Amino acid sequence: MNQINHAVGPRRPTWTHIAFAVSDVEASVAWYEAHTHLRVLARHEDEDGRNAWLADPEERSRPFVLVIGQFYAGHDPFAPATHPPLGPFAHLGIELPTREAVEQVAALGRESGCLALGPVQMPKDIGYICFLKDPDGNTLEFSFDQGVYETARNLWQVGA
Prior knowledge:
- This protein is of the alpha/beta class.
- It has 3 helices and 8 strands, in the order βαββββαβββα.
- Strands 1-4-3-2 form a 4-stranded mixed sheet, covered by helices on one side. The protein has a 4-stranded mixed sheet with strand order 5-8-7-6, with helices on one face.
- A hairpin with a 2-residue loop joins strand 2 and strand 3.
- The longest helix is centred in the middle third of the chain and has 14 residues.
């Protein structure tokens, strides 16, 4: 199989995605679209299972995708290995523009029963955060004033 299937690819190594095994793709898509800014970019299905690619529609030039995949019974290529969720410390992080945005995410998480932590003020390199758990138990951190965004932009002179 040396056939190339895609006409466009990165010109250098590029951070493109993270993938989670999920128990129900549709439930996970609904959860991520309700609790984050991510939206479905693509869906795929074959004899082994189905998946959805979720991404930020505003990040067109440098997309980063969350791949959520559901294997059909008897078709998991990694079996008998299990697919443990991210947590309690391992997490996906989303930095938000305001403290109020973190509070809104926490309120939504509390209302939908998936708030795992916060909102709480942590030390300066962590910021104001809350943790939510997705339907399969993966941890997502929503932060304000963490500094990841600012540090990367400043050190790499983005917008200079």
